[in-house]
Amino acid sequence: MTKTVVIDPVTRIEGHAKISIFLDDAGEVEDARFHVVEYRGFEKFCEGRPFTEMAGITARICGICPVSHLLAAAKTGDKILAVKIPAAAEKLRRLMNLGQITQSHALSFFHLSSPDFLLGWETDAAKRNVFGLIEANPDLARAGIRLRQFGQTIIEKLGARKIHAAWTVPGGVRSPLSEEGRDWIRDRLPESFATLETALGLFKGMLDDALKTEVEVFGDFPSLFMGLVGKDGVWEHYDGTLRFTDSEGNIVADGLSEDNYRDFIGESVEKWSYLKFPYYKPLGYPDGIYRVGPLARVNICSGFGTPKADRELQEFRDRAGGVATSSFFYHYARLLEILACLERIEGLMDDPDLLSSRVRSTGGVNQLNAVGVSEAPRGTLFHHYQVDENGLLEKVNLIVATGNNNLAMNKTVTQIAQHYIHGSEIPEAMLNRVEHGIRCYDPCLSCSTHAAGQMPLHLQLIAPDRTIIDEKWRN
Amino acid sequence: MSVCTLTIDGKDVAIEAGATLLDAAKEAGIEIPRLCYLEGLSSVGACRLCMVELAGTNKLFPACVTAVAEGMEVRTQSPKLQNYRRMTVELLFAEGNHVCAVCVANGNCELQDVAIAVGMDHSRFTYQFPTRSIDISHPKFGIDRNRCILCTRCVRVCDEIEGAHVWDVANRGENCEIVAGLDRPWGEVSACTSCGKCVDACPTGSIFRKGETTGEKARDREKLEFLAQARQQHEWVR
Question: Which of B137, B211, B214 comes nearest A390 by C-beta?
């Protein structure tokens, strides 16, 4: 008899989700699905609000990556105003995003994911978390927590609070960095570099040996990769143009503008998840599967443009054999990105613009339709607003980083389940590996479930013996 | 000028006849919460937060519109008053759409201050989530009726100080709302002089300067006080 194994909730991710694993008569995995079971609805209830409020409102989507929404909303607002923001404002926004990527990646690596591979997949589930890590390796845990604190404090030094700092505004930012803030950041950089180097050394050492299987089965499949790149294809996190590459490293599309995102990104929905399924339009659904986030950004770029990160990128590519197609490499890519962020933060420290008071351009409503894009820690984030001539929002569309990875996450859990699960006896550690497939992407589900009105609903009435008595579909 | 003597919370106060209980409390250094009252404007007793108890009657009296009388014994604090004030503020929150986290007045809002002062940590009443409009057709300012508590300060400041009378109260009951120019988009009302006094008078984030984002609303309340005093004293230099 067929059987469904449900992992509910998926732990150590941001948001609420469950995984269903479908077994056939022989107990082999037929399919697996990653269901996002929460609903936020920001796209709908932002309608009617002034566009100037969007940074403040959408930042509230998430406590982990509010900066991503602050930036995308402010950039969309810049376009509605049709103003060029002061150079200082752009540098300050970049600094905040670098702090944000650092803190979010540190959280993903040290707090959420590393307990699995540093403590071991078989460790007691009650200890397989950051507290277990503190017990087993207090120095590393402390360093990881302080690295996250470094990123969080950069956000606070700029926006006066660590989370939900409504500091970016259409036209720029509210205030510059103080000298005291700049000095604090500069003083903490050496420690942050040292922590990162320790973590990189540790992780690379495990890739050769202890984590070899994980690299092979945690979402190793061909797909497209999408992200922003800067001039000459350099790694980018704030502006630039969009690039798609394939698993061989060929550029599929380049120089794309976010303004035309509907030409190359389609959004599909499935009955069993609140999360939309974006796909690369020219290849159709679901063949247009693409990945975003650290792995994609590292794969699509020509280099980081900073010496330490570029050295590590070379080694990364040597280890991956060119393009990294395994989603387990997301962790590795995350560490590389933290290194690149630290180097870029260091590079900004001597820039006098950071202390400039000319940080905000003003203007009226000059464009009624605008798309803003930024690279969130988890990948490319789009905000699309349509406003009336006074600036009240008529339509809002958010394509959130985690959504972009939806197809890939489903494929990853299926691949892991098929590798580890055979028969009806399923050890907990195997299920943990399936969950970890999701953790590789560091998804933020609370960020990503906003579409309203088009969500189909599937209702099942299930008897105690698990037979389905009745079911209804609402399309 | 005749003088009345009375006690407020046991404190002896002497004040000119015709003054209100709120004036007397101020004289005695006693703070009474209020939202619709604004110095320099006529009082309307709309918000019911300044209700006080008078010895000899079970009725409650709004301090902003009750004249002092000789020998009055006034109580501004009692469990009954605290309960009513908290209930009043809870009703204000339940009746509108007040989302402090993303409001322009967050951290600089009299409704928020009063809620803290009366010890409100949540509303016991069912939130109504009314559908209310936002008008940002004016080139400089906007009104978000979701955040309006119908204190009518804007109506009075525009009429009594600026003399433009742009604002009025329209409709009844739950449909009651502040309208500009007999219910036209604010930007089309030629009577508006764009002076911004309504922005300064508004206790919440309902009337704001366009472009202000979360927590950015600033008020020049001293300007209103100056204008009110200047008219009385004929001194027009601030």
Answer: B137
